[in-house]
Amino acid sequence: MPTSMPGQPVGSRGRCTPLLLPLLHLHLLLLLLALTSRPSQAAIDIPPNYQIPDFKKPPEITAQPESITASSDITLTCEASGNPEPTFRWEKDGSEFDLSSDPDLKVTPGTGTFQVTAEDQPISLYSGNYTCFASNELGTAVSNEVQITTENPPTLQKEKKVQFKVEEGESVVLRCNPPASIIPPHIHWMDDKLHHIQLNERVTKGLDGNLYFAHTLVEDSRNDYTCNMRYMSARTMFSKEPITLVVKPSNSVVRNRRPQMLRPMGTQSSYHVLRGQTLELECIVQGLPTPTPQWVRKDGEMSETRIFRKNNGTLLHFSQVHEADAGQYQCTASNSQGTATHVYSIAVEAAPYWRKEPVSQLYAPGETVRLHCEADGIPSPRVAWSMNGNPLSEIDPDSRRSVRAGVLTLKNVDYSDTAVFQCKATNKHGSIVANTYVYVIELPAQILTPDRNPYTVIEGQMAEMECKSFGSPRPVVTWENEDFESLLSSPRVTQLSGGSLQISNVSHGDSGLYTCSIPKANISISAELEVFNRTVIVSPPLELRVQRGKSAIFTCIAKVDPKLDHQLLWRRAGQKLIDSSVDDKYTFADPDLVVADVQQEDEGVYTCEIITDLDMAQASGSIAIVDFPDPPSRPQITTPKDRGVTLSWTPGDEHNSPVIEFQIETEVTAVETDDWRLLRTVAGDTLRAHIDLRPFLSYRFRVVAINDVGMSKPSPASVVHSTPAAAPDSNPVGVRSQSMDPDTLVIRWEEMDQQNFNGPEFQYKVMWRRVVGAGPAWNSNFTTSPPYVVTGVGNYTAFDIKVQAVNGIGLALDPVPTIGYSGEDVPLEPPMDVGVALINSTTIKVTWAAIEKDTVRGHLLGYKIHLTNRGPRSRHHHEEPARRARELQNSVVVVGPTEQKKVVGELQPYSRYTVSVSVFNMKGDGPASEPFVFHMPEGVPSPPVSLELDSPSETEMTLRWRPPAQPNGVLTGYLLQYQQIVETEDSPMQVEPIDNPKVTNVTLKQLDPHSRYRFQVRGRTSAGEGKPATREGATTLDGVPYSPANISVSVGETSVNLSWASGERHRNVGFHVRYLNKNGPGWGKWVLSEKLDSSQSFYQLQGLQPGSGYRLVFIYNNATFWETEVHTDGAGVMPVQGGFATEGWFIGLVTAIALLVLLLLILCFIKRSKGGKYSVKDKEEGHVDSEARPMKDETFGEYRSLESDNDEKRTASQPSLCDDSKLCSDDGNLDDYGNSNSVQTEVIMDESLASQYSGIRDNVPETEAPDSSSLDPPTYTAANQGLPISSAFLD
């Protein structure tokens, strides 16, 4: 690293810039150089990151000595920094004080600090004024002048014990009289147990150490009042002789006494105090009752921050006395007998203190230095300058140096002017010294800002890119962009004095790379500016009007630059809202804020803040509590008339939600009902309304207010208003005839509301007359309610009818008549000429002749076509009539009264039908016409039933089906179609016609084992092909059978659940599980499970002992392919020692029973194998086909043969030994069918038989067929649900 001397460069940092600058930059540089070459006071502050090796520095005092008063040890501190390390010397009383000449002084290395103890020699020799000097090659710094004051340690003279005797209520002072010392001791009054004497308003310790009693009590008597003193400077403690205080009780009532000053005495006193010191004023008063002291400032306000009351108000404490504290302070002590006052006059003076201190700086050669030194004090101090500890008056004069009004000026400085200057301020209270150095140095220019700093800013804001530099003289900084364009020509661009570049109202076009350079030093740095989009709130919170107790939801959605992270904050009244675990008041679900259970205190402004690292956007909404309006009041009726009134009211409080409308309700008191009903609605700004009324009624009114929240409670009801009677205004409506019986006219109408009676004695006048032949005369009668019945009028005769309202005042207007009819009767005759025309196999057209209207005897409603399906055409006519009647299917088609033909569809093809037609009216149906017989032609059949797939090999597929449930004719055969399923497009459809309708299975060969197929089978009749039965599947793959994989174990107390993954399109394999109890009852014996099938996927091993360990082994063909160890849950069972189970007689008995049961089983199986085969066809009558439903584990039932029905019929009646034995199941011998290759069987075992085969657990099927060494032959077990292992893989 290069070294440097003042005036030489010490290195540079940054990168070089091109030497050729634009002409504009060159002119600007020359102008700035010309300006900076002029003399100026430009002090240099070296930044911390400026790199300069071994930088020299003038000395600076870092630890000043302090004046002390000592009676034992003396320590004066003087420490300084600087480079080179400064040396120290002392002056005492203006003369050199050589530390090295005094062997008793101990000097701290590297400092000017020294120490001396009283053990070495008398410390009085060191009394005096001291000054410390710290020097190196750049100058000398001078410390403050301090004083060492010495005194002998205090001593306590022997004293006599003191006793005070006073009357109760008198005042007394217990004096301490401590030994004199420059520094007063700390005094405490204690008893002989070293407990502090309790001080209070009555008992007070003064600043002089005495204990003052405002008045005494009998309980103050004691003989151990001890004054304890501690001298901090002498490190000494004393205890005075205990004082005895005897308070004699008064023989009479203690007399009260006026307050009187104990300390200070008199009414006035004066104090002089220095600025910054601590001042305490006392006010200790005697009297009975205890006087209460009060402090006031007579000539101003007391400072509340620096003046405090202590010791129950007897002491006024000033901390850091200020000039403003000078004045008069009065203490007033009062009780019920009077007052006592004392006034303190406080005068404040000040030792010198700095108003403005000179600052140490670095300067470049040729600059002008001005050092300001301003001090204050009372009286005003005198200011004098020194250089390196020598007064300027004693130094050779220099025309470049001058002092005026305390300001030291140095012009055109050079390297020789480097020195430490002292400014000393002095008055009668002391002096202070300020050191400041002037360091004249030349430093090379450096750019202190790191290179390639990134700057990010939001569009529209101001960007400021730093380019801090340092050097002596100060370097000139220039900026340019990537295109070397002038930046200062833009009004938005400003270069600051510190070198930073400011761009106001930035846009995305301002993004890019900027270069800051110092051309004279040929160094530069780059800065990269990136401008982001402004954060904008696009969906601000709304002003919500919320009902009390409901929730309010604010939404705040903002558009944020995707490169910026942001957070959403919510505030209420400026306070941040936080999620509380105590309650659910606020829920934050960005971008929503949910305020739950809104109450009055939740009203206010809510602000959302979207905050990024660069900007913030905010928007506010509010919550206003709204509620139902208060009910209106004082409803009043004005301007009453016969049929109307005016109602007015006074609105209630709206609760922040304006009233939208008022509802006027009325209660009619003259009618039976007393319900209030809505009369009319008016706008929310309306407070009166005209109301129309009906005659002969009494009304009350009330008003309800409605706002956005809801409806108010009703107002109080108005007074009752009654209207006079009048003739009816209207007649009843809905006048009609509803005559159900023949020869009867029933007249009905809607009863009028009682409110429309308009008067007393209300009734209805009913009028009728024949439409034809009766003339204009009306028949009439009166009634009070409908209906009105007129008899002897004939069947279905037309009448003019009308009903008029009448009351005691008069009649309503004459009503308009309407047509009505008398009652109907059923029709007399059926339609004639009924015929049928065949359209297709399911549709016909029925025709008939129109009916004579006279025979209808009522209003013709229409015709009914009666159809009866009498079964297929091929059914034998000699079937018993009862069975035919059960199978008849009847249907009725209704047509309109004007129709004479009807097309009827959805009939059953190839069936025999009869048809007849009848007429109906409102009274009922007439007789039907004679049945007409017709036959439907053949149709296409329905899809075949139960299409099943079976794969004997990987290239073959066997299809089995049952005939269509509805052949719809004579079945002539089937059509088999199949094709490969491919993803791109349909493959060609292969067609296999089957002309024999009795064929129900087909085997397809040479199929692709790697493809899936879609199979379709259709039935055929002479009418064509029916809809297909469709299945998809693939053949079963040959090769190695699938063994269980991914076996998992779940352990319980007495069982273990085993599960595994079944293979897809693989032939299944049978296997066993062997298990061994390792530590429980029966341990050491292997147990073999029933035979399992790999397609089961699950098996439960039961009957285990709780809390025992087991070893499980999976075996296939006597080879182990998986094993594990498990431990059952629960507590273990201790083996029972001994018992009858180990006796020989018990073992023999169990053996005999087992042999007997085995013999019975053998007999049962032999008998069953000889003749116990059941007909499946009979079982199908009462059970669902087992192939049509999946078989569940542990479910057993029947077996059936897949051979022809002839074989089943031959074996249906053969007896079985198990018919009378409870030891056998109904399923017969399984071995016969398990070894048969000519018959495929579906085996479903009964639970009782399974329990005989299983030696492991109850209710677990044991369907193991005779074992085979080869896996190729198919096996049939309950585990594979009765299907051969080569069954097809089906969807």
What is the C-alpha radius of gyration, as a whole number of Å?
62 Å
Roughly how many Å apart are the termini?
A: 86 Å
Report low-confidence residues grouped into runs of 5 or more: 1-41, 876-880, 1171-1291
Question: Which strand-content bin applies to the residues?
Answer: 35-45%
Gross morphology is elongated
Strand count, sense and barrel status of the largest sheet are: 6 strands, mixed
Query: Could you report the average pLDDT, rounded to the nearest whole number?
Result: 81
User: Percent range for helical residues?
Assistant: under 10%
The gist of it:
It is a single-pass type I membrane protein. The chain contains seven helices and 97 strands.
Task: Describe this protein's structure.
- Helix content is 6%, strand content 41%.
- With 1291 residues, it is mainly β.
- Strands 2, 5, 6, 9, 10 and 11 form a six-stranded mixed sheet that branches. Strands 81, 82, 84, 85, 86 and 97 form a six-stranded antiparallel sheet that branches.
- It is a single-pass type I membrane protein.
- One of its GO terms (cellular component) is growth cone.
- Residues 1266-1284 have a biased composition (Polar residues).
- Residues 59-149, 154-244, 259-347, 352-439, 444-526, 534-624 form the Ig-like domain.
Can you lay out the helices and strands and say which pair or pack?
Layout: H1 23-36, E1 57-63, E2 68-70, E3 74-76, E4 79-83, E5 87-92, E6 95-97, E7 106-107, E8 114-116, E9 128-136, E10 139-142, E11 146-150, E12 162-167, E13 172-174, E14 186-190, E15 203-205, E16 211-213, E17 222-231, E18 236-239, E19 243-248, E20 257-263, E21 268-274, E22 279-282, E23 284-288, E24 292-297, E25 307-310, E26 315-318, E27 327-335, E28 338-356, E29 361-363, E30 369-372, E31 374-378, E32 382-387, E33 390-391, E34 401-404, E35 407-410, E36 419-427, E37 430-440, E38 443-447, E39 453-458, E40 463-465, E41 469-472, E42 478-481, E43 493-495, E44 501-503, E45 512-518, E46 523-532, E47 536-539, E48 543-547, E49 552-555, E50 557-559, E51 566-572, E52 575-576, E53 586-589, E54 592-595, E55 604-612, E56 616-626, E57 633-641, E58 644-650, E59 661-668, E60 677-683, E61 688-692, E62 698-706, E63 721-722, E64 736-737, E65 744-748, E66 763-770, E67 779-783, E68 788-791, E69 798-806, E70 818-821, E71 835-838, E72 844-847, E73 860-872, H2 881-887, E74 889-895, E75 901-904, E76 911-921, E77 924-925, E78 932-935, ...
Parallel strand pairs: 2-11, 12-19, 21-28, 29-37, 39-46, 48-56
Antiparallel strand pairs: 1-4, 3-8, 5-6, 5-9, 7-8, 9-10, 9-11, 13-16, 14-17, 15-16, 17-18, 17-19, 20-23, 22-26, 24-27, 25-26, 27-28, 28-31, 30-35, 32-33, 32-36, 34-35, 36-37, 38-41, 40-44, 42-45, 43-44, 45-46, 47-50, 49-54, 51-52, 51-55, 53-54, 55-56, 57-58, 58-61, 59-60, 59-62, 62-63, 64-65, ...
Domain Fibronectin type-III: 631-726, 728-825, 830-939, 943-1039, 1040-1131
Membrane topology: Single-pass type I membrane protein
Region (Disordered): 629-652, 720-739, 1019-1038, 1176-1223, 1250-1291
